[in-house]
């Protein structure tokens, strides 16, 4: 048996190597799609075999052969699986013992590992025990879930599994939605960050509604952003709006705000100045980025002594005072970047002649309303200029970094 198994694996590896050697440029579109379908089905079958093997190895305690307690720990330690991926393989093996039809479809390659995972997540050991106590025939659900997995969109399977769990305890107490809410944020070495959140159905609906409203409100012509980029911009805009509204709880007697600390020499130097400024939460950003933030912010002058201690703290001053901002909003009406009509409350007031580098004054004539994304663009090579001789609605011109003007074509209907 061992020799046969080794021979099968050798054949499998040879087949994969042959696939990798194919020249995809020689295949027509239909052939590429057929190849994709065959590979997906084969991967499903291999995943099913992995689940079957890991389950049997777990039952017989094979991990002890290498000094480990479980196959889940072996998948993590020996094969570099994440904890969640290893747990998913083990859970799938356990649940498929109760669902032979789904297991057969998985082995045939018509059901994916992700679909089996949906069922495994919804059919916990306590649910299997509850079904046995209530004489619920899992066979009927096995047949129904397999049919859904084979024929309907992925999301439908989760709905079908949830219906089973609801039927097991129709009068049970409603769970506390806050118990399932999680948010983790990780800052990377370059100051950027990533995060993950887990929300209950209603909480997720609220967040999705806010993000979608901002995505739909920010759709300028010629927008080439991906959906993920649009949602990322919407999240930052949500935070920006919330900070600007001023209704957040105080942080140590101070309203929450973005803090950027930069030396005066770096602020007025036209060089990029990488890592010249520090944010309030410890990230390092460039002086160029600090100048962008300072364009519409409050500025506090702090004189430092040779020992690094503050000698004098000047008054905090708003770069763009409220009356100037109101005038700019009234005149521009929305972001003035070509093709963008983001509303005034999403916008910063940009200095056409920079107040730090070019000693540009804070005045109506030297100001332009730009949303967060296009304010960034203007500080990275794009340019907006006002043409007072043009008719209303066409008084702002936008230029690319190469000096060519962005000309908007007619709206397509």
Automatic annotation (TrEMBL):
Residues 323-376 form the HNH nuclease domain. Residues 177-191 have a biased composition (Basic and acidic residues). InterPro entries: DUF222 (IPR003870), HNH_nuc (IPR003615). Residues 166-194 are annotated as: Disordered. This is DUF222 domain-containing protein. It comes from Klenkia sesuvii.
